Amino acid sequence: QWGALRKTLCETIGENNYKAWIEPLRYDGLENGVATFGAPTNFVGTYVSQNFGDVMLSQMNALSGDSVRRLHFRVVQGANETSEPTRSAAAVAPATPAAPTSPAVAPAQASSDLLPGAPLDQRFKFDSFVVGKPNELAHAAARRVAEGGRVTFNPLFLHGGVGLGKTHLMHAIAWELRERNPELNVLYLSAEQFMYRFVQALRDRRMMDFKSIFRSVDVLMVDDVQFISGKDSTQEEFFHTFNALVDQNKQVVISADRAPDEIKDLENRIRSRLQSGLVVDLHPTDYELRLGILQTKVEQQMAYNPGVTLQDGVLEFLAHRISTNVRVLEGALTRLFAFASLIGKPVDLGMTQECLTDVLRANERKVSIEEIQRRVAEHYNIRLSDMIGPRRTRAFARPRQVAMYLSKKMTAKSLPEIGRRFGKRDHTTVLHGVNRIEALAKSDAQIAEDLEILRRALEA
Ligand code: ADP
Ligand code: MG
């Protein structure tokens, strides 16, 4: 029942709270009326119990027929390891883009009466979307579509990994279009909702209504279209709807978590139609973009938690240590601010580490020595065999030392182990290489830059 409980909880306490507090929990079962949960830190357990305990208890009882008397939280290592946070958020989020009780969200905006669209999230507008290198193309394309006017590319196909801003951009397009022209029939929904409505229409024998509704919109936006892979009749209907709109020169915007040619079990004619407009991807966020996003979100958090202050270096630390998914980044910030406002101290690095141990641990990228060797060889344009081979000319020795250095810094491997992996070299050779590069990084700008590039590529 944990799945069901999570879903209803997300709806009642809002997506932000859900992400920050419920997602990290693990449900360990019910015994003698006591429901036990594993929490990643003591703080999370206490916070959840104080703030959401009552709601959880009553919802659990509603779901289980009053069998729960008490909730118990205990600290466990890696509480949420079984369900990767980004994935489980994604599973819930698309169905409820605007959690009704979340403070920043206005009530669902009813478009026109009949249209079965999904509500738009107030927070997802262009002015809150931070633009950086990884998303600038997607952003520019979305802007262009949002201007309305002549349809230049159809469809616009946005793709990218979880939490990189696809849904945000789609909502932003819809908001902007509606603002510019309230008459316009803009329909946004997820592919899952499209399927659901289609099935419902079939069941109720209302296919004519279904077709006429979907074919009379001015702009159709379908989110997470990978969902219809393998669902033949839904694909068929989607294809017809799509064609009818494109033929009338109506704008269609599609998103997916991967490129059209990577979506499995999709009819070829659909795939090629999806590719026939403009396909742009949102790349994984880089450090600068993450920092920019954090700075923007901190301002919002400050508004909710007046009095909380942030010490220098905290945002940089988070931008550095938390991987690409912006949703995870937001969840971390929300929790951090709640923590700080509760204990009434400024946020510093120590507090950040304590409060976010689980998130930070989950984001530790495990880099292997092989990966380092491969990347470094590529970077210096030498063969992998020369990287680990016996030759000691400078053209090979320097890259080798760089790779040894990175292996020492980025993996937990010991010097002897690293030595073995570099063609059975002695640990003193490794130590010498590490020291050499460490010294050079301070005096040689080129080496410093190489290290920076390689580090980033390996961390990405
Ligand atoms: P996706 O649909 O690609 O999985 P979302 O659009 O739902 O991702 O984004 C996840 C969260 O991250 C949302 O809260 C969104 O507002 C935020 N987000 C993503 N990219 C940006 C960005 N560039 N600027 C500001 N917020 C962003
Ligand atoms: Mg999405």
Question: Which key phrases capture this entry?
Answer:
DNA replication origin binding, Chromosomal replication initiator protein DnaA, alpha/beta, 460 residues, ATP binding, five-stranded parallel beta sheet, three-stranded mixed beta sheet, binds adenosine-5'-diphosphate, 8 strands, 55% helix, binds magnesium ion, Rossmann fold, lipid-binding, Helicase, Ruva Protein, domain 3, 21 helices, GMP Synthetase, Chain A, domain 3, lipid binding, 4 domains
Give a description of the structure.
The model is unreliable at 81-113 (pLDDT under 50). 40% of the residues are buried. A five-stranded parallel beta sheet has the order 5-6-7-4-8, with helices on both faces. The protein has a three-stranded mixed beta sheet with strand order 1-2-3, with helices on one face. With 460 residues, it is of the alpha/beta class. The protein is globular. It folds into four domains: 2-83, 2-Layer Sandwich (GMP Synthetase, Chain A, domain 3); 126-282, P-loop containing nucleotide triphosphate hydrolases (Rossmann fold, 3-Layer(aba) Sandwich); 287-362, Orthogonal Bundle (Helicase, Ruva Protein, domain 3), CATH 1.10.8; 369-459, DnaA protein, C-terminal DNA-binding domain (Chromosomal Replication Initiator Protein Dnaa, Chain: A, Orthogonal Bundle). The protein has helices at residues 2-13, 15-22, 42-64, 85-92, 136-146, 166-180, 191-203, 207-215, 232-247, 268-274, 287-304, 314-321, 326-343, 349-355, 357-362, 369-380, 384-388, 394-410, 415-421, 427-443, 445-459, and strands at residues 26-31, 34-39, 70-75, 156-160, 186-190, 219-223, 251-256, 278-282. Bound molecules: adenosine-5'-diphosphate (ADP) and magnesium ion. Residues 152-282 form the AAA+ ATPase domain. It is found in: Cytoplasm.
